[in-house]
Design a protein that fits this description.
This protein has about 190 residues and is of the alpha+beta class. It has one domain: Glutaredoxin (3-Layer(aba) Sandwich). Helices cover about 55% and strands about 15% of the residues. The chain has a 4-stranded mixed beta sheet, with helices on one face. A hairpin with a 5-residue loop joins strand 3 and strand 4.
Length: about 190
């Protein structure tokens, strides 16, 4: 499903922003303010190996605008992680194998691949804490007010939860890969 060529055909964050039709200034503004704390960077660097983050997104997506600049900042500050972004609509096979709640084509979706481009997990479409609110008590809130509350939540969080979720995903992928290597060595 994933090949080196398909992965590298995706856009870098800057390339995606350069071709974006929607939210261009917002993408740039959030990325300019995106900060990743040194502890998160240290944890990712400590994983070693080579990791590839592939993101399904679209330029109109508010959750993407509020999360991907921070994921890009994390990748930019590490030497063992890189990031590419591809369109949800142009990649239905990947989207349909990463559905939220079995049916929803929600984005962004961040997939983690090792150096052989084997997938080790995925995250999305929004930080875990916010996702629980949206699927729980947020359902009782009018849609316009729910979106406003989501934007307020993102503004208060400053990407911290997104970065923590993605770092935890990378750590899990690393443990998964180490476990697979140990099983092969033992056999």
């Amino acid at each position: 499903m994933m090949t080196r060529e398909r992965y590298y055909a995706g856009w870098t964050f800057d390339e995606m922003v350069a071709v974006a039709q929607k939210n261009v200034e917002l993408w740039k503004s959030v990325r300019a303010r995106a900060h990743v704390d040194e502890e998160a960077v240290r944890r990712v660097r400590a994983l070693g190996g080579e990791w590839h983050l592939l993101v399904l997104s679209e330029d109109w997506c508010g959750d993407s605008v509020n999360t991907l600049p921070f994921v890009d900042a994390l990748a930019a500050h590490t030497n063992n992680v890189d990031l590419r972004i591809i369109g949800r609509e142009a990649n239905p096979d990947l989207m349909d194998s990463h559905l939220t709640n079995v049916t929803s084509r929600s984005i962004p979706i961040v997939m983690v691949f090792d150096k052989q481009f084997l997938e080790h997990g995925w995250w999305g479409p929004r930080p875990t804490v916010l996702q629980h609110w949206v699927l729980g008590e947020g359902q009782a809130v009018d849609q316009d007010e729910r979106y406003k509350e989501q934007r307020r939540w993102y503004a208060r969080d400053h990407g911290r939860t997104t970065v923590e979720d993605v770092v935890a995903l990378l750590e899990s992928a690393s443990r998964d890969l180490q476990g697979a290597s140990a099983s092969i060595s033992a056999a």
